[in-house]
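Side project, low priority. Logging it here so it doesn't get lost.
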Amino acid sequence: MVLKGEQVANEYIGLFAQMLRKTLDFSLAENLSLQEEIEYIEAYIRLHNIRRNDPVKFEVSCAENVDLLGHTLAPMLLQPIVENCMLHAFSSQSKNATIKLRITEKSNTLMLKIDDNGLGRKKASENKDKKKNNTEHQSYATQILKERIDVLNYLHKEKSVFRLEDINSNGQVVGTRAILILPKVKPKKK
Protein backbone atom coordinates (compact mmCIF):
# COMPACT_ATOMS: atom_id res chain seq x y z
CA MET A 1 0.00 0.00 0.00
CA VAL A 2 2.90 2.35 0.72
CA LEU A 3 4.03 2.04 -2.90
CA LYS A 4 0.56 2.93 -4.16
CA GLY A 5 0.67 6.38 -2.61
CA GLU A 6 -0.93 8.70 -0.15
CA GLN A 7 -4.29 8.90 -1.93
CA VAL A 8 -4.73 5.11 -1.79
CA ALA A 9 -3.62 5.04 1.85
CA ASN A 10 -6.22 7.70 2.69
CA GLU A 11 -8.89 5.72 0.82
CA TYR A 12 -7.92 2.58 2.73
CA ILE A 13 -8.02 4.30 6.12
CA GLY A 14 -11.36 5.97 5.34
CA LEU A 15 -12.91 2.71 4.18
CA PHE A 16 -11.47 0.86 7.18
CA ALA A 17 -12.99 3.45 9.54
CA GLN A 18 -16.41 3.04 7.86
CA MET A 19 -16.15 -0.75 8.15
CA LEU A 20 -15.21 -0.51 11.81
CA ARG A 21 -18.19 1.76 12.51
CA LYS A 22 -20.58 -0.56 10.63
CA THR A 23 -19.19 -3.58 12.48
CA LEU A 24 -19.91 -1.87 15.81
CA ASP A 25 -23.41 -0.90 14.66
CA PHE A 26 -24.12 -4.43 13.45
CA SER A 27 -22.90 -5.95 16.71
CA LEU A 28 -25.77 -4.20 18.49
CA ALA A 29 -28.43 -5.10 15.92
CA GLU A 30 -30.66 -8.16 16.13
CA ASN A 31 -31.30 -8.09 12.37
CA LEU A 32 -30.42 -6.01 9.34
CA SER A 33 -31.72 -5.86 5.81
CA LEU A 34 -30.25 -7.94 3.02
CA GLN A 35 -29.33 -4.63 1.38
CA GLU A 36 -27.27 -3.56 4.41
CA GLU A 37 -25.45 -6.90 4.50
CA ILE A 38 -24.66 -6.67 0.78
CA GLU A 39 -23.36 -3.10 1.13
CA TYR A 40 -21.15 -4.23 4.01
CA ILE A 41 -19.74 -7.07 1.88
CA GLU A 42 -19.11 -4.70 -1.02
CA ALA A 43 -17.14 -2.39 1.28
CA TYR A 44 -15.23 -5.37 2.70
CA ILE A 45 -14.23 -6.51 -0.79
CA ARG A 46 -13.26 -2.96 -1.82
CA LEU A 47 -11.02 -2.80 1.25
CA HIS A 48 -9.29 -6.05 0.31
CA ASN A 49 -9.02 -5.07 -3.34
CA ILE A 50 -6.91 -2.05 -2.47
CA ARG A 51 -4.14 -4.50 -1.56
CA ARG A 52 -4.54 -6.75 -4.62
CA ASN A 53 -3.00 -6.37 -8.06
CA ASP A 54 -6.05 -7.92 -9.75
CA PRO A 55 -9.26 -7.02 -7.90
CA VAL A 56 -11.86 -9.61 -6.94
CA LYS A 57 -15.17 -8.98 -8.69
CA PHE A 58 -18.37 -9.21 -6.69
CA GLU A 59 -21.62 -9.90 -8.53
CA VAL A 60 -25.08 -9.99 -6.98
CA SER A 61 -28.11 -11.47 -8.69
CA CYS A 62 -31.43 -11.35 -6.97
CA ALA A 63 -34.71 -12.96 -8.01
CA GLU A 64 -37.39 -10.41 -8.84
CA ASN A 65 -39.56 -11.48 -5.91
CA VAL A 66 -36.84 -10.76 -3.32
CA ASP A 67 -37.10 -7.41 -1.56
CA LEU A 68 -33.59 -6.55 -0.36
CA LEU A 69 -34.88 -3.91 2.04
CA GLY A 70 -37.93 -5.89 3.10
CA HIS A 71 -36.17 -9.01 4.35
CA THR A 72 -33.83 -9.16 7.29
CA LEU A 73 -31.24 -11.56 8.59
CA ALA A 74 -28.95 -11.81 11.57
CA PRO A 75 -25.93 -9.54 11.05
CA MET A 76 -22.71 -10.85 9.57
CA LEU A 77 -24.02 -14.17 8.26
CA LEU A 78 -22.68 -13.65 4.74
CA GLN A 79 -19.49 -11.77 5.58
CA PRO A 80 -17.61 -14.76 7.05
CA ILE A 81 -18.30 -16.73 3.87
CA VAL A 82 -16.97 -13.89 1.71
CA GLU A 83 -13.99 -13.53 4.05
CA ASN A 84 -13.13 -17.19 3.49
CA CYS A 85 -13.28 -16.63 -0.26
CA MET A 86 -11.00 -13.61 -0.05
CA LEU A 87 -8.45 -15.25 2.25
CA HIS A 88 -8.43 -18.87 1.07
CA ALA A 89 -9.96 -19.26 -2.39
CA PHE A 90 -7.78 -16.77 -4.22
CA SER A 91 -4.06 -16.21 -4.17
CA SER A 92 -2.77 -12.65 -4.43
CA GLN A 93 -1.91 -13.49 -8.05
CA SER A 94 -5.35 -14.88 -9.01
CA LYS A 95 -6.69 -13.43 -12.24
CA ASN A 96 -10.41 -12.92 -12.89
CA ALA A 97 -11.28 -13.86 -9.30
CA THR A 98 -15.05 -13.59 -8.85
CA ILE A 99 -17.49 -14.03 -6.01
CA LYS A 100 -21.15 -14.37 -7.01
CA LEU A 101 -24.05 -13.98 -4.61
CA ARG A 102 -27.39 -15.35 -5.85
CA ILE A 103 -30.52 -14.73 -3.80
CA THR A 104 -33.78 -16.58 -4.39
CA GLU A 105 -36.97 -16.89 -2.42
CA LYS A 106 -39.22 -19.93 -2.13
CA SER A 107 -42.29 -20.13 0.07
CA ASN A 108 -41.00 -19.02 3.48
CA THR A 109 -37.26 -19.26 2.88
CA LEU A 110 -34.45 -17.26 1.35
CA MET A 111 -31.68 -19.18 -0.38
CA LEU A 112 -28.34 -17.43 -0.62
CA LYS A 113 -25.65 -19.07 -2.73
CA ILE A 114 -22.14 -17.67 -2.70
CA ASP A 115 -19.91 -19.07 -5.44
CA ASP A 116 -16.24 -18.39 -5.97
CA ASN A 117 -14.05 -19.45 -8.86
CA GLY A 118 -11.09 -20.05 -6.59
CA LEU A 119 -8.93 -23.02 -5.68
CA GLY A 120 -11.62 -25.24 -4.20
CA ARG A 121 -11.73 -26.54 -0.64
CA LYS A 122 -9.20 -29.36 -1.00
CA LYS A 123 -6.52 -27.23 -2.66
CA ALA A 124 -7.13 -24.34 -0.25
CA SER A 125 -6.78 -26.78 2.66
CA GLU A 126 -3.51 -28.12 1.21
CA ASN A 127 -2.20 -24.55 0.94
CA LYS A 128 -3.27 -23.91 4.53
CA ASP A 129 -1.47 -27.08 5.69
CA LYS A 130 1.73 -25.87 3.99
CA LYS A 131 1.46 -22.67 6.02
CA LYS A 132 0.65 -24.41 9.34
CA ASN A 133 3.85 -23.19 10.94
CA ASN A 134 3.02 -19.71 9.73
CA THR A 135 0.91 -17.96 12.37
CA GLU A 136 -0.17 -15.31 9.90
CA HIS A 137 -3.88 -16.19 9.98
CA GLN A 138 -6.04 -18.64 11.89
CA SER A 139 -9.44 -19.09 10.24
CA TYR A 140 -12.50 -19.38 12.46
CA ALA A 141 -15.14 -18.04 10.07
CA THR A 142 -16.79 -21.34 9.10
CA GLN A 143 -16.86 -22.66 12.67
CA ILE A 144 -18.29 -19.40 14.03
CA LEU A 145 -20.90 -19.32 11.27
CA LYS A 146 -21.98 -22.90 12.06
CA GLU A 147 -22.26 -22.00 15.75
CA ARG A 148 -24.36 -18.93 14.91
CA ILE A 149 -26.68 -21.08 12.78
CA ASP A 150 -27.02 -23.50 15.74
CA VAL A 151 -27.98 -20.58 18.00
CA LEU A 152 -30.51 -19.27 15.46
CA ASN A 153 -32.00 -22.76 15.15
CA TYR A 154 -32.27 -22.98 18.94
CA LEU A 155 -34.00 -19.59 19.19
CA HIS A 156 -36.41 -19.93 16.26
CA LYS A 157 -38.74 -22.69 15.16
CA GLU A 158 -37.90 -22.06 11.50
CA LYS A 159 -34.56 -23.72 10.82
CA SER A 160 -31.56 -22.30 8.99
CA VAL A 161 -29.11 -24.42 7.01
CA PHE A 162 -25.49 -23.83 6.00
CA ARG A 163 -23.37 -26.10 3.82
CA LEU A 164 -20.34 -25.97 1.55
CA GLU A 165 -19.85 -27.87 -1.69
CA ASP A 166 -17.37 -27.99 -4.53
CA ILE A 167 -18.23 -26.55 -7.92
CA ASN A 168 -17.20 -29.06 -10.59
CA SER A 169 -16.74 -28.66 -14.33
CA ASN A 170 -15.56 -31.52 -16.54
CA GLY A 171 -14.37 -33.48 -13.51
CA GLN A 172 -12.29 -30.58 -12.16
CA VAL A 173 -13.00 -28.50 -9.06
CA VAL A 174 -13.39 -24.90 -10.24
CA GLY A 175 -14.50 -23.23 -7.03
CA THR A 176 -16.59 -23.50 -3.91
CA ARG A 177 -20.28 -22.87 -3.26
CA ALA A 178 -21.64 -21.87 0.13
CA ILE A 179 -25.38 -22.31 0.56
CA LEU A 180 -27.28 -20.55 3.29
CA ILE A 181 -31.01 -21.24 3.64
CA LEU A 182 -32.79 -18.90 6.02
CA PRO A 183 -36.40 -18.43 7.07
CA LYS A 184 -37.80 -15.19 5.71
CA VAL A 185 -37.90 -12.55 8.41
CA LYS A 186 -39.74 -9.31 7.79
CA PRO A 187 -38.36 -6.21 9.51
CA LYS A 188 -39.98 -5.30 12.81
CA LYS A 189 -42.18 -2.22 12.68
CA LYS A 190 -40.67 0.68 14.59
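Brief comment: The two ends are 43 Å apart (CA to CA).
Revisit when time allows.
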